[in-house]
UniProtKB/TrEMBL annotation:
Residues 28-40 have a biased composition (Low complexity). Residues 321-331, 339-350 have a biased composition (Polar residues). It comes from Patellaria atrata CBS 101060. Residues 25-47, 62-190, 308-350 are annotated as: Disordered. Residues 62-75, 90-101, 139-160, 167-178 have a biased composition (Basic and acidic residues). This is SMP domain-containing protein.
Amino acid sequence: MSSENSSSKVPAIIEGVKGLLVNDKKTPAANDNNDAAAKAGTCSGNEQKILLVDEIDKKEQQAKDLEYQKGKPTEPADNTASQADATGDDAVKDLAVKLEQGETPSVDEAHKVQSEEQNAMGGARPPTGSTSAVAQSAVDKEQNFQKTLHEVEEKLEKDPSSVTNEDAARLHNLERRAHGQTATTKGSEVAEIQSKVAKEQNFEAALHQVEDKLQNDPSTVTKEEATRLASLAQRAHGPTAIAKGSEVAEIQSKITKEQNYQEAAAQMLDHINSAPETITTAEAQHLHRLDARAHGINNIQKDGITAKAQSLAAANERDANTANQSSNQNEKGGAQHVENINQTANTESK
């Protein structure tokens, strides 16, 4: 017969016996005497009945206590340290203290404590909130953080422009989960990475802006923008970022060529507006060279300042040649006229 069936029949037995003996039961003082007499083996039959009722009362209370303990929920431990005390194992206690101090255990420590707790619980898996469960969670969080940290560091080394704000935010979130801090500590690995990502993004934004201007309207790129781009490149990648042959160095060269052309073109425009007849072939050729360096020989505009300067210079040269020819002819005609006069004078004198 199971303990559950036995305990359920106890109240019925008690009530039956109590009904038979209710009129015979003595006072509390008499019960004490009866108890003593029963122990001495000298109590009467009626006194033995009373003792039986008392014994049944005790059994009834024990049954109620048993039922209460069966239905009572298991209370969770207040903290990992108190659970460690229950196991009585030094390794569990030490790890519990380590966890409470915010330290991350090693994989071996977590596995060892899990084994100790399982042994203490008869091979059962430690429940949620146990020292080993908390330790394993801490280990998992640290491993996730370290894995993402390594991935972002590789991106920064191979292709810094591929690291996004989302990468930096995810890394910070994993660090917070693993180490329990709401803000990244200055000088930490994550802080260094966040700084690198910010510098890289500032440089990339400035680079794209300048490249767009060079492609769509090179004349709008200023010296200040070129200087700022070089500064951001050095912050993001170091001094080699502006070394000869680098991307920034190529862009700076383009900007310099464009600015040289723009300055010469502005001077030529003033010259055209003020004294177009004085524009020389040498001046037009100089502007043509600067235009070709900045934009390519095939990209010189047919109706631009360079073309207009060349046209005016050619016209001025033709006019100058014509004037020279006319002057030479006049000089020759004058000389012939003088010679004719001299010849006439000589003839008359004869």
